[in-house]
Amino acid sequence: MSRIMGYTELKRMMEQKLPQKRFLHSLGVAETAKMLAERFSLDPEAALICGIYHDSYRYISAEEALKEIRMYSISIFKEEEENENLLHAPIAAYHMREDVGPVPSSYIKAVRYHTLGSKDMGALGAVIYIADYTEPGRKHLDDEERKRIYSEPTLEGMVRYIIEKQNVYFKAKGIANAAITDELYDFLLKGGRFEK
Predict the structure, then answer these.
(1) Neighbours of 169 (CB within 10 A)
(2) For residues 46 and 55, is the Cβ–Cβ distance under 8 A?
(3) What percent of the residues of the chain are helix, what percent strand, and what percent coil, each to the nearest 5?
(4) Cα(87)–Cα(116) distance, integer angstroms
(5) Are 162 and 131 in contact (CB under 8 A)?
(6) Largest CA distance in the chain
(7) What are the φ/ψ torsions at residue 144 (nearest 5 degrees)?
C-alpha cells in the first residue's frame, strides 16, 4: 500500500473485521486517544488510526498467532507467550504497514505496546495505552476514577497511576506484573519522559 489509510476508511474496515462489542471498544479508544492527543499537542489523526487499529488481531487464534510469530521471527515477551490474550499486540504491529500503509514507527510502537506498556512506546504509545484503559465503555472504571486519571498533568503521570492501580489489582489476585511493565514503572519513577 503506497499511502496511509485515513481514519474513516480504516474505521469502516475495522467495523467489518471486528465483532460489534470489540469494534465499539476500539471506537472508544480512538476517540479517547484523539482527545488526549489534542490535549498534549500530538497528531490527532495518528491517535485515531492507532486507536481504531490496536485490537485488529484480537481474535487471531493462539495457534495461528504462534505460527506467524515463528514464521516471521516476531519478537515477543515471556508474558505474551504465557497468555494468548496478549499475542494480538505483536501480530497487529507486524501487520500494520501491510494493512494501513507506510505508517511511521511511532504508530507501530503504539500498537505493539498497548497491552503491557514500554518505556520505548513514545508519547503516542502512552496515549493509546491510557485510552485503552480509560475509554468510556470500560466497566472497571467509574467517571470519578477517569477524572482522577485525566487530572494528572502529564502522560507520564497518567501511565504511572494506571500501573499503580493495576499493581494493586494484580497483587490481590496473586498475578505477577510483566517485566516490561515493571521496567516502564521504574523509568517513570525516575522521571523518564516519553519521546514525542
Answers:
(1) 11
(2) no
(3) 65, 0, 35
(4) 11
(5) no
(6) 48
(7) -65, -40
| pLDDT tens digits, 12-45 | 999 999 999 999 999 999 999 999 999 999 999 9
Overall residue count recorded for the chain in this entry? 196
CA distance 128 to 50: 7
What are the tens digits of pLDDT across the range 101-140?
999 999 999 999 999 999 999 999 999 999 999 999 998 8
Q: Grid cell 494493586 — which residue?
A: 168
Conformation bin of residue 23: beta by default, left when phi > 0, alpha when psi is -120 to 50: alpha
Q: How far is CA 21 from the centre of its chain?
A: 17
Give yes or no for a contact between 19 and 57, defined as CB atoms under 8 angstroms apart: no
CA 152 centroid distance within chain: 19
Q: What is the rounded CA–CA span in Å between residue 148 and residue 29?
A: 18
Domains and CATH numbers, the chain: 7-189 (1.10.3210.10)
N- to C-terminal Cα separation, the chain: 26
Pairwise CA distance, residues 13 & 85, whole Å: 22
Q: Which three cell numbers mark 168?
A: 494493586
Distances (CA, A) of 141 to 44, 135, 137, 193: 24, 9, 9, 26
Contact 126, 156 (CB under 8 A): yes
Q: Is the CB of residue 112 less than 8 Å from the CB of residue 89? A: yes
